[in-house]
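Issue 218. Parser rejects a valid record. Input:
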Amino acid sequence: MARGRENRADPRVMVLSLGALIAFWALLSVLKGDPSVLPSPLEVWQVTKAEFLSGALLHHVSVTLLRVAAAFFISMLLGTALGMALGAWPRFNRWADPWVVVFLNLPALVVIVLCYLWIGLNEVAAITSVSINKIAMVAVTVREGMLVLDRGIAEMAQVYRLSRWTRFRHVLLPQLAPFLAASVRNGLAVIWKIVLVVEFLGRSSGVGFQIHLYFQLFEVAHVLAYSLSFVVVMLAIEYLIVKPLERRAGPRN
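Output the parser choked on:
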């Protein structure tokens, strides 16, 4: 029980830690003395405020968030199904494992470029490329969960003649919950970064597109404003959704 309390995020610690990071950033900007290279936190905040009031920031962050959500849902759904199949059928796992290894090691940039070349510069290609990059990661994590299932519990469920749905819901899913939670955490951490690259290379909206635009103009304050705005959104998702789900899925002491 004590360990569970230790693992819970303390809001005060988080605020102090982020405050120290901002103070370090401010110190570096003063030492550098060149706002065009490293603007101060106050300058970035002023740019962020202006972009928000104009409506541009909210629009582009919302577009990126929708792409992240779509790719996340597809990759979790297909990756979980594939991982369960790999763990349940050893013969299928032996034949499919080389494919999984190939997709695990295929560079995200290559997948993105190929999807744009084969499908076109559209939303289907963008979301497909991100999903392909993540499906193999989810599948491997879920497969490991399937391989460590308690066979005794499964046999007991068969003895009591529980239906397949009941066994799936009350026997399989609770044991896979920590592995699914890990996939969710890693999935969000990886997917939103890949989405920004996708937008940087071939979309006309989103945070990645804005970063590309202001990169060409060498507007560092705008690049930081859009980057940090989306980081704040992902931090909110991490602490308000992912961490509570992870604690719920983890072992109870």
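Fixed in the parser; the record now loads. The radius of gyration is 22 Å.
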